[in-house]
Each structure stands twice: as C-alpha cells, then as structure tokens.
C-alpha cells in the first residue's frame, strides 16, 4: 500500500450531515447497551478525582483489550475506588454521539469514526490517547468463483458500511489496481455491496455476494461457511501493522480528570501485556465476555483464526490513521481533514515509561 500524502490545512466533508453514515466503525452487538461486564470494587479502595468513569466499546474481538480488561478486573484494579460503568455499542456513530453527550468518557473505537468525530467537531470533542489493536481484517471469497485477485473484477464484494474503515480500505485497494468504482453507489469494475456484518454470512450463503472485505470475527465466520481467505489486509501495510482499534477520550474529561485517564491507560497497557503473555487464557477470557454480552460464545473454528490475526498493542500507529484518512480522501468520501491535535499521547508515554517500555509517536498529529 502506498504511503499517505501529508495532511496539510484541511477541510471536513462537504456534506457534514452525511458523515455519520460515511465514516463508521464495525462490530457485533447492540446499540449502547449498559449491560457490559461490571468489575467489583473493594470497599476500602480509594477513589480518584472522579467517582466513576464511563467507558464504551464493542462486543468484538478487535476490542478485546476492553473485554479482557473488564472481565479480568485489570482496568478496575488501576482505578481503585473509582468505579467503571461500561456500555457496549454496535457502531462508531452511536459511540461518538455518546461521547459528545457525556454518556461515556473513554471509548475503544476504530480509526474512521475517530477521524469523523474529531473533524466534525472542529477538533473540540475528543483526543486519541492510545492504540489497542492492529489487524484482524481479511478479504474472503467464494473459492468456486474467485481463485485469484484478478478474478474479483465483475464480482460482488461486501463491506460493512459506506465509508467505514474496511470500505475505505477496499476502495483504496481497488484504485491501486487501476480499477474504477463509484464510491457512493459501489458500482464499477467491482460491485461493492454495503452489508451489515451480522447479515454478511447469510448474504454469502445465499449467493448475494461473492465475498467480503471484513473484520474479525466476520471473516472467520465466512471461512467456516466455506469461504477462503484471499488477502489479509495486514499484508499490504508496512510492517504488517495498521490501526483497527484505538482509545479516545472526551477532551473535557481529560482536562478535568487526568488521573483517571492515566489509570485507565495503565490498565490498558497492563491488559495488553497480559494478553500477549497469556494468549490462550486471554482468548478464552474474551470469548467468555462475548458470551455474557451476546448470549453466545464463538465456536473454536471461528475464534481461533480470528484471534490469531489480531495484534494487541499500545502504539496507536498514528501514521496509519493518517494514511487511512488520505485513502478516504482519494476515494472521494472525504475532503482532507485537519487532524493536527487529534492525538495526546503524553499520558500514555508517562505510563509506558513507568513500565519500562519505549515511547510511542503521534506522526506530527499531536497537541504539542
């Protein structure tokens, strides 16, 4: 994948009203459910500057830092007597709306809704304060009709939603091959069919689509139904890394409760370290959390390959968010957004230094 063009003085999309539909996240679960796992708080635990911190995330494996961090009490441990109130979301716009409304303070979310939320507010509503996960996106196809990448021409390929993170990636990949597709309609050399993740497996089984460029666990669900992985998106990024989930915070909450934000980040860093040191236990923990939230655990044939394709890390991989914004611009879905100030990594770097880990960088898009 080619490097992104430098982002200069930029403007938001011409039709801001359409942005919530254009740049969204993807995942399973219900809209804004306040039934996420709650951690127990010791009676004598000392509160920080806020008595409660409201966090949001998706019931999705790419949000496993939050799933495992809450499930195992690793986030609550760092917060002491400050309690976690957790909500789960099905899509990026609803989580951004919750952040803007004060219904959540901190959220795990994808790059496109982060860009959308930041630019739509004129840079006033959120900061990205950490990375969380990389990878976990695949192009899977019907092996009976598609055997090579060239065979995609003329076929119907699903993405989760117009302008969402995977939709932008697929449109950019198509353009890199010299093929033409109208971004809005999805019509062209390849038919891009916007389909919700939860119904994509049925669309594939019915023959309505020939494949999909989708995140996990949807990709592995399709493979379990007979599809074949034709391309792992990680293979087209430098060092096989690109941001799929980062952590955002309300600017107001960051200013008023920096100690709480730092505690959540400390919990996130320690959760990622535990996940990477105990991958099998962490996978089981994430699946247990998903079962509690959705009522159904993922079967091993879906869980195992999905988990294997995701990397959990603290680095926000800022240059790849910059690249994804540029890809949305080149696809005609976004005018160049001014992303200067979208990152504040000082709290994270403070935590990383205390843990003996190297600092991470904001690709020139930080507040300082």
Short description, anyone?
The protein has 14 helices and eleven strands. By secondary structure, it is an alpha/beta fold.
Characteristics:
11 strands; five-stranded mixed sheet; alpha/beta; 368 residues
**Span between termini:** 29 Å
Order of secondary-structure elements:
HEHHEHEHEEEHEHEHEEHHHHEHH
Main beta sheet, described?
A: 6 strands, mixed
User: What's the arrangement of strands in the largest beta sheet?
Assistant: 2-1-3-10-4-11
Shape, per Cα inertia axes: globular
- Number of helices in the DSSP assignment: 14
Instruction: Indicate the structural class.
Output: alpha/beta
Helix % is 25-40%
Q: What share of the residues does DSSP label as strand, in percent?
A: 15-25%
Q: So what's the oligomer here?
A: single chain
Which regions have little confidence, pLDDT < 50, spanning 5+ residues? 1-31
* Mean pLDDT over all positions: 89
- The whole-angstrom Rg is 19 Å
| β-strand number | 11
Task: Kindly describe this structure.
With 368 residues, the chain is an alpha/beta fold. It contains 14 helices and 11 strands. The chain has helices at residues 19-22, 64-71, 74-79, 92-101, 111-120, 165-176, 200-206, 218-224, 251-256, 258-277, 279-294, 300-308, 318-330, 346-354; strands at residues 52-57, 83-88, 106-109, 126-135, 137-141, 156-159, 191-194, 211-215, 228-232, 243-250, 310-312. The strands form 2 sheets. A 6-stranded mixed β-sheet has the order 2-1-3-10-4-11, sandwiched between helices. Strands 7-6-8-5-9 form a 5-stranded mixed β-sheet, with helices on both faces. α6 (165-176) links the parallel β6 and β7 (191-194). α6 (165-176) packs across α13 and α10 (258-277) packs across α14. The longest helix is centred in the C-terminal third of the chain and has 20 residues, at 258-277.
